[in-house]
Amino acid sequence: MTPSSVDELLALLRLERLEDNLFRGQSRDIGTRYVFGGQVLGQALSAAQQTVAEDRAAHSLHAYFLRAGDVDKPIIYNVERTRDGGSFSMRRVTAIQHGQAIFNFSASFQKDEPGVEHQLPMPSVPGPEDLEPPAPLPAEKLAALSPKLQRWFGRAGPFEFRHVYPRDELDPPKRPPFQQVWFRLMQPVPDEPALHRALLAYASDFHLIGTTMFPHGISFLQQHVQVASLDHAMWFHRPFRVDEWLLYSCDSPSAQGARGLARGMIYSEDGRLVASTAQEGLVRLVDAD
Fold it and tell me: How is the chain split into domains, by residue range?
């Protein structure tokens, strides 16, 4: 039986352990020019989690994308056990391809403990069941794209997305820098919190930088627009499942110097704030010729 896109993603996140602190992850061509940033983010978190005691969960991560990843080659993840304290552990991870670091990553882990609690409310938006799934691109539009982009739009990915306010990425209008997107994994997965965190890290790389382009009527599909993730930060607040609907509420407070900043808050369907993100990306206008 042909494995589903979810099965392929789970295989990507189940790294091969080469040594106590050394792991190897495979890469997958999903139609992007280089390795998808969310893949490296999810794999790095998976590697770090395997070196931490089971009673400590990741609560924050910070990463820098240093070089473009090669989709045809595996990635080596070297984990540094920076600290194991009474309540917190810290790990640093370097992702390596062709003998060079392509990605640096730090994550902090904490034992579960009680404390004060509050959160911002979830935006008032239609629920996922009230929204239509995205329509496939018409054949004539798909044929006009590059082979890689045809794979991007023609494949059934591991996540389902439903945009509260859909936008035509091939002919994008100018809009304020805000968007809300419901998403979930396409099939159920085991009840393993560490796995769900790695999967959410993977999914969190979608939509953030795209939000920075809304006010300018441009998108990553246009030949004169060069886009790349520069860094990524994420905080895990409350338990969640990625195979249940989550709302990604994104905004972009600033774009300047060929860089755009985006922030995101991720809510469960019942309104709990489960994670927050922030990312700066390269948004460069180039000569289309």
Answer: 5-111+128-285
Q: H or E stretch including 192?
A: none
Q: E strand or H helix at 174, and its extent?
A: none
Q: Is 229 a catalytic residue?
A: yes
Residues contacting 59, CB < 8 A, separation 6+: 108, 109, 110, 235, 236, 237
Question: Residue 152 corresponds to which amino acid?
Answer: W
**Which entry of 43, 204, 205, 251 is annotated as an active-site residue?**
205
pLDDT value at residue 52: 98
Q: Quick one: CATH architecture of 5-111+128-285?
A: Beta Barrel (2.40)
pTM (global) more than 0.85? yes
What digits encode the pLDDT tens for the residues 24-57?
Answer: 999 988 777 789 999 999 999 999 999 999 999 9
As to burial, measured by CB atoms within 10 angstroms (0-12 exposed, 13-18 middle, 19+ buried), residue 265 is buried
Can 279 be counted among the known catalytic residues? yes
Among candidates 4, 2, 75, which has minimal Cα distance to 39? Answer: 75
Strand partners, 164: none
Catalytic residue among 179, 204, 229, 249: 229
